[in-house]
Amino acid sequence: MEDIFKNNRAWVAEKVKQDPDYFKKLALGQKPRYLFIGCSDSRVPASGISGTQPGEMFVHRNIANVVVHTDLNLLSVLQYAVEVLGVQDVIVCGHYGCGGVHAAMGDQQFGLIDNWLRNIKDVISLHQDELNSITDLETRFRRTVELNVIEQVNNLYKTTIVQNALNAGKPLRLHGLVYDIANGVLKDVKWSTEDFKQYAASYHLPIGTEVEQS
Fold first, then answer.
1. Stretch 97-120: mean pLDDT, rounded?
2. Annotated binding-site residue? 93
3. Chain region(s) in the chain for CATH 3.40.1050.10
């Protein structure tokens, strides 16, 4: 822990050197533009990979960046970000080499987390034909990561929070990104409402208002 305190003091000193009022400004409140829903993986720091500063990005993280409609933690973060903070862009960010996705692709039992991984297994089942057609295991793994991001953005779009924001005319944009740990680059998976409409009838969603996308 001593390293953490030492690094903190050095970070504070550097920030104050750059701007003596830096922390006074932060203490006045936050108005982030982005909500980042990412994986808990320690190699994927939201602010680090996006180049954002404190106060610019609201963050929620869990195993494999999953959006579950019964997850009150995520829904509370989403509602606060959209309805109170007024974020304009909501990002679901996965990453290649995701341990959660890899575990979901196999048949090994891990305990409690298996219940969480079933959300990813649902994605695999939904796209089984495409994934089974990919013979190279690494390519299939990477594609599963991408499809998981796309389906989690779909889940995000289904929430009453996002639907109500869109119906109210709020300028809300949804994005699906994948981070490549091997080179540090973010990839846009090009999610759009057109991808989602094939499932819309099953959920009886009001799609009168188009959500903006990247």
1. 96
2. no
3. 31-213
